[in-house]
Amino acid sequence: MATEPTIVATSGGHRAGGRTMVSFHALVHHAVDLSGVHGRRPRVMYVGTAIGDAEHFTSRMHEAARVAGFDLTPLHLFPMPNLDDVEGTVLEQDVVWVMGGSAANLLAVWRVHGLDRIMRRAWEAGVVLSGVSAGSLCWFQGGTTDSYGPELRPLNDGLGLLPYGNGVHYDSDPGRRPLVHRLVADGTLPETHCTDDGVGLVYRGTELVEAVTEIPGKSAWTVTRDGTSTREERVEPRRLPGV
Questions:
Q1: How far is residue 210's CA from residue 31's CA, in Å, rounded to a whole number?
Q2: pLDDT surpasses 90 at 3
Q3: What is the pLDDT of residues 6-51, one digit of tens each?
Q4: Per the UniProt record, which residue ranges are transmembrane (predicted)?
Q5: Which residues of 62-89 are buried (b: 16+ CB within 10 A; e: fewer)?
Q6: Active site residues
């Protein structure tokens, strides 16, 4: 277990594999490192709720975990939970990795099954919570999402483990940055922490302690309200080893 509640919120973590369709990139390995696991294979839970627990991607995650040397446990909620003891199994993990997709659907389904409360207990117990895109946004108060259609809209009912907004794919989706600024300026979102593709944010408790990257030249950003406007500040990410 991590020594204190830890979240790694990212716009990355996956890349094409050599002999597999997908492999885990440096951000996933960094989440595992932060768990402090040693002397055995890391236990990683893959949660694919945001893409409807698509079986083909669960298979790809199993392949990625095999190559990385992780023991992977998938948590499926469609059509029913695939585990007899969801909470106990979550609490046994070193890392939870949440896939991107529909953040709105993820949050709704998690709440139906009480997974929102389970994730909070896991976070407090030292399981490293992490993920990409929707799997990043879910830990915050809210952010921007295309869950409702191709036009980006605000989402403001995240789990709230972190008291900020979150902006993912900040450099690759041209609509994200202006919408984040508008939502922070009008008070819809609080201070918002954003990641370019390939960048992750590391939180100890609710404090942002570091930005890290698996792609050189990328950045993290904070957006705060300044009167009726906003202030954007760049956060220089540390380049992770091996990238």
A1: 13
A2: no
A3: 999 999 999 999 999 999 999 999 999 999 999 999 999 999 999 9
A4: none
A5: ebbbeebebebbbbbbeeeeebeebeeb
A6: 133, 169
